[in-house]
From TrEMBL:
Protein name in the entry: 2-oxoisovalerate dehydrogenase subunit alpha
Principal place of residence: mitochondrion
Domain of life, per lineage: Eukaryota
GO biological process: branched-chain amino acid catabolic process
Cofactor(s) the record lists: thiamine diphosphate
Subunit structure: Heterotetramer of 2 alpha/BCKDHA and 2 beta chains/BCKDHB that forms the branched-chain alpha-keto acid decarboxylase (E1) component of the BCKD complex. The branched-chain alpha-ketoacid dehydrogenase is a large complex composed of three major building blocks E1, E2 and E3. It is organized around E2, a 24-meric cubic core composed of DBT, to which are associated 6 to 12 copies of E1, and approximately 6 copies of the dehydrogenase E3, a DLD dimer. Interacts with PPM1K.
Keyword Metal-binding: yes
Stored Pfam families: E1_dh
Catalysis performed (reactions): N(6)-[(R)-lipoyl]-L-lysyl-[protein] + 3-methyl-2-oxobutanoate + H(+) = N(6)-[(R)-S(8)-2-methylpropanoyldihydrolipoyl]-L-lysyl-[protein] + CO2
Lineage summary: Eukaryota, Metazoa, Chordata, Craniata, Vertebrata
UniProt similarity note: Belongs to the BCKDHA family.
Length: 500
């Protein structure tokens, strides 16, 4: 709620003193004026006039402070971002500075951030999956909603198996998405398949929704010969040109200005598509986030900034990351239309993204969505979150406010899903993931020579030396890693940009 900007009467006594002092001041000024007329010397006359002016100034200040009989100890009441109409009318002229459209004020006042109302969290369902306003039931078919649910649970199953894989030493690294499934599926479903996605590293659900096969997820994590990235990246750094999903680079926030540049290019080409750029609330503290927001606003780019606020940047909780009203609170100051949504409510995420997508394309404007959620898993397999947060905290989000559980309640209440469907689907999902996992593990590794391709047309001497050293080590350690056979000796001479 906005705080009230006006203050009541201070007290009766104050009102009385104001009136009395006002009249006695007038009488005093009158007496001095009479004396001035009687005096003869010019020096004396001037001195009287000076004291008269001084007194008038005191009188003026006195009147303006007691104006409206608000004898408040704070002469300028705090306000919430807007100047009251009355104040604007009082200003006789408007500022002409090119840097801001604002009004003059005689009030010395710093805006108190904690007096500004916070942005509410938009939601459609409550924590138990009940629609809050029955006139706003999502206009989505059973088939669509069941698909949301199946994608969310399949994704969750894939995460569990790949996480266990890392724990068993089968893959080198993994980062789960537990608890954030609603933000991925809800937003992905609201996009056009041709919209370009720039992700951070915890948005694999978006790629899954777009149809990236389980085999390719596994190939990337296992760095096998089928990996589109040719085994050159850490696990979870997916990318797919066919699905318009730009390859992940986990150097925080670098994707933000890149995404804005891509959106600007779409606008210049007069295309109807938009860019969506995902990032964590932690990444929003990087300078690149500021640069990206400001460029997008000033260049009027069709982009959706989608911030997943999951409460942590590794071990740093949000209350140590910022002092303002989250990430959505920053949007308006950049001139970006912004909303905060309940990220565990897949319908709220869907609706907000759909609306933002439609308007970004139609108006060539950036939009900011801050999806509030919780990172249920560890930051990654290199992290142990029990050292910085309690079991109870995690358990609340796992058991009482989880996007999958919430959607299931919604489905069950409508009679669209039941225990039987659940059992059959869970079995099927697990089976699909396990089969993909086994296939990936059995595959050969890509040729190490591929490490040196796709950057230089002609390999520089330094890299040629490194390649030699690599093969020397390979031979001397008698590596038994099963490699994909070399396709041809021309491998390294292939044009790295076949599309150009
Ligand atoms: C420039 C840079 N600094 C530090 C890191 C190390 N790092 C990796 S993830 C991470 C936290 C990011 O938190 P957030 O953006 O909230 O995303 P989340 O992991 O919560 O999804 C940090 C500090 C990095 N990858 N890049
Ligand atoms: C439900 O939404 C409609 C349409 O916005 C609104 O008119 C109505 O007041 C809402 N009902 C409640 C109970 O909030
Ligand atoms: C989704 O948004 C549209 C407007 O874009 C609105 O008409 C509809 O009621 C919303 N649906 C829900 C479930 O709130
Ligand atoms: Mg985070």
């Amino acid at each position: 709620m906005r705080r009230k900007t006006t203050q009541p009467f201070h007290n009766r006594r104050n009102l009385f003193t104001s009136v009395r002092s006002y009249f006695s001041l007038h009488i005093y000024i009158y007496l001095i004026a009479v004396r001035a007329l009687q005096s003869t010397g010019r020096e004396e006359q001037m001195a009287t006039i000076r004291s008269l002016r001084k007194l008038s100034a005191i009188r003026y200040r006195f009147i303006s402070q007691s104006k409206g009989w608000r004898g408040s100890p704070v002469p300028c009441p705090h306000r919430a971002f807007h100047i009251s109409q009355q104040r604007i009318k009082l200003a006789a002229e408007s500022p002409k500075f090119p840097g801001a459209s604002a009004e003059f004020t005689d009030c010395l006042e710093f805006i108190e951030p904690n007096m500004i109302s916070t942005i509410p969290v938009y939601r459609v369902m409550d924590r138990d999956g009940q629609i809050i306003n029955t006139s706003k039931v999502p206009q989505l078919s059973q088939e669509t909603v069941v698909n949301f649910y199946q994608k969310m649970t399949l994704f969750n199953t894939m995460d569990k198996i790949l996480y266990e894989s890392q724990r068993q030493g089968r893959i080198s690294f993994y980062a789960t998405n537990f608890g954030e499934e609603g933000t991925h599926i809800g937003s992905a479903a609201a996009l056009d398949a041709n919209d370009l996605v720039f992700g951070q590293y915890r948005e694999a659900g978006v790629l899954l929704y777009r149809g990236f096969p389980l085999d390719l997820f596994m190939a990337q994590c296992y760095a096998n010969a089928d990996d589109l990235g040719k085994g050159r990246q850490m696990p979870v750094h997916y990318g797919s040109k066919d699905l318009n999903f730009v390859t992940i680079s986990s150097t925080l926030a670098t994707q933000i200005p890149q995404a804005v540049g891509a959106a600007y290019a779409l606008k210049r080409k007069n295309l109807d598509n938009v860019v969506i750029c995902y990032f964590g609330e932690g990444a929003a503290s990087e300078g690149d986030a500021h640069a990206g927001f400001n460029f997008a606003a000033t260049l009027e780019c069709p982009i959706i900034f989608f911030c997943r606020n999951n409460g942590y940047a590794i071990s740093t909780p949000t209350d140590e990351q910022y002092r303002g009203d989250g990430i959505a609170g920053r949007g308006p100051s950049y001139g970006i239309r912004s909303i905060r949504v309940d990220g565990n409510d897949v319908f709220a995420v869907y609706n907000a993204t759909k609306e933002a997508r439609c308007r970004a394309a139609a108006e060539n404007q950036p939009f900011l969505i801050e999806a509030m959620t919780y990172r249920v898993g560890h930051h990654s397999t290199s992290d142990d979150s029990s050292t910085y947060r309690s079991k109870d905290e995690v358990s609340y989000w796992e058991k009482q406010d989880h996007p999958i559980r919430r959607l299931r309640s919604y489905l069950e209440a409508r009679g669209w899903w039941g225990e039987e469907e659940e059992k059959a689907w869970r079995k099927k999902a697990r089976c699909q993931v396990m089969e993909a996992f086994e296939r990936a593990e059995g595959r050969l590794k890509p040729q190490p020579d591929l490490l040196f391709t796709d950057v230089y047309q002609e390999l520089p001497l330094s890299l040629r030396k490194q390649r030699e050293a690599m093969w020397d080590t390979w031979d001397s350690t008698r590596s038994t890693i099963p490699l994909m056979p070399m396709k041809s000796n021309a491998l390294c001479q292939q044009c790295p940009f076949p599309d150009v």
